[in-house]
Amino acid sequence: MTRSFHKMHGLGNDFAVFDARETPLAMTPALAAALADRHTGIGCDQLIVVEPSTIADVRMRIWNADGSEVEACGNATRCVAALVGRECSIETAGGLLSAAPGGDGASVDMGAPRFGWEEIPLAYAMDTTALPVGWEMLEGATAINVGNPHLVFFVPDLDDVPLERLGPQIETDPLFPNRINVNVAQVIDRGRVRARTWERGAGLTRACGTGACATAVAAIRAGLADNEVTVELPGGPLVIEWRSGGNIRMTGPATLAYTGEIDLEAFR
Ligand SMILES: N[C@@H](CCC[C@H](N)C(=O)O)C(=O)O
């Protein structure tokens, strides 16, 4: 018995999306990791299951490539909005979101960022606007929860940062009890920021929607950028809007690569 899935991506951050609104699907961390494997599975950064919701139009569940279930995924939220095909509310473990498809993608209200050390979460109390710790050249990060936990390091030159080496070290530091997503960002001007992300549970990706949100919020809050910022990721740009005290709006593309069929029993 096979099950259909949609291979989708947002700026190259790719997903296997299972629509379980009518036929339930029992996902487990082990099955998610097996399906996400790029050699023996479908291959993706995150696996997404769209389910019915009692409080929203749909519920979106998210598993990283390593099988960990997580609270938020910005790029996948746009893909789910494109799949639903109309303005909709989306229940996630990180909060209730609202999204509207449009153009080649969607615009999403990602909710309000949180800055409290226990909301990130960090292991103990400290100033989250400039963490008093460092990992080699990466120091003074801002910690933000935008549904999921992020660090943002502003650096003079993005290309000088060995993120593939420092990313996993920071992700798994005991300071972060739930691990953390690691963003490095370079401010180009008040409307443009370049960024790269080491994603918790997935590694380096071509784009991270929540990473772009965290980066823009950190830049705006530090007075380095205006309220609308284009975050330029390796896979392309996302537009992020935020005002202090308000919700984050993220706008960008959502692409359907193909629809396939897979025998899930072969992966269990
Ligand atoms: N690619 C995503 C983020 C996916 C989850 C993240 N790796 C985590 O563990 O929190 C995005 O577009 O936001």
Task: Outline the structure in words.
With 268 residues, this protein is of the alpha+beta class. The protein has two domains: 3-107 and 254-267, Diaminopimelate Epimerase, Chain A, domain 1 (Roll), CATH 3.10.310; 134-246, Diaminopimelate Epimerase, Chain A, domain 1 (Roll). 15% of the residues lie in helices and 40% in strands. It contains four helices and 19 strands. The protein has helices at 29-36, 74-84, 163-171, 209-221; strands spanning 3-10, 13-19, 46-51, 58-64, 69-70, 88-92, 95-102, 105-109, 134-135, 138-139, 142-145, 149-154, 181-189, 192-199, 203-204, 228-233, 236-241, 249-253, 255-262. The strands form two sheets. It has a 17-stranded mixed sheet that branches. It is globular, with a radius of gyration of 18 Å. The chain starts with a strand and ends in a 6-residue tail after the last strand. The mean pLDDT is 98. Ligand LBFN2T5F binds at residues 13, 45-46, 64, 70, 73-75, 148, 181, 199-202, 205, 208-210.
